[in-house]
Amino acid sequence: MPDWRIRVNGDAAVTVECEPRIDAVINEWAVALANAIRAARYPGVRDVVPSYSAVTVYFNPLHTDLDRLWAALEEAAAAPVAVARAPREVVVPVRYGGEAGPDLDEVAAYAGCPPDEVVRRHTAPRYRVYMVGFLPGFPYLGTVDARIAMPRRSNPRLAVPAASVGIAGSQTGIYPTTAPGGWRLIGLAAVDTFDARREPPSLFRPGDTVRFRAMSTETGQ
Prior knowledge:
By secondary structure, the protein is of the alpha+beta class. It has two domains: 5-78, Gyrase A, domain 2 (2-Layer Sandwich), CATH 3.30.1360; 89-218, Cyclophilin. The chain is built from four helices and 13 strands. The protein has helices at 24-40, 66-78, 104-111, 115-123; strands spanning 5-8, 13-17, 45-50, 54-59, 89-97, 127-132, 139-142, 157-160, 164-168, 171-174, 179-181, 184-189, 209-218. The chain has a seven-stranded mixed beta barrel. A four-stranded antiparallel beta sheet has the order 1-2-4-3, covered by helices on one side. The protein has a two-stranded antiparallel ribbon with strand order 8-11. Helix 3 packs across helix 4 (115-123). The longest helix has 17 residues, at 24-40. It is elongated and about 55 Å long. It starts with a strand and ends with a strand.
């Protein structure tokens, strides 16, 4: 059981948090806690948002007894009960390199290996969805093979194309829409990670497993 604390987060939210680091055990606790809070349907709670190592609970201050909510969160955090749901693995086809992945060669140079080896190392793991955020439907996935875990660009791009697959240190992720970003772009995913008309809109949920599958590799272009 990880160490945790509760803190006020403005006048309409509280956060239950652990040490801020990428850790599968801590994240499993956070996901289980978020699911338990949602299932309990505490009066006035508007939203429950898990992250890598914390859960933020948004509530209506006019309809919520904060003392009672605080006590309930303390009890839940001490022993979160995982709400049963079928395990999910999402397979994501990716076209690597070339215009689809303009930073693949740079990642290969950083790793000291051919681009095809970067692709092999990127597609080998089963990644955990640690959280969804930054943009609607953006999955933070980990952890990346240490050899290809290249840091972010010092100068972010003003417009990263939608569906771009990127690496930022030990994380990898998929941009759901065109947006500024500094991740190293190695390919384009053939999935729609977010669709407001879909239920749920996000393709990914915290706790899911993701596998990347290479469609083709366009190196040297």
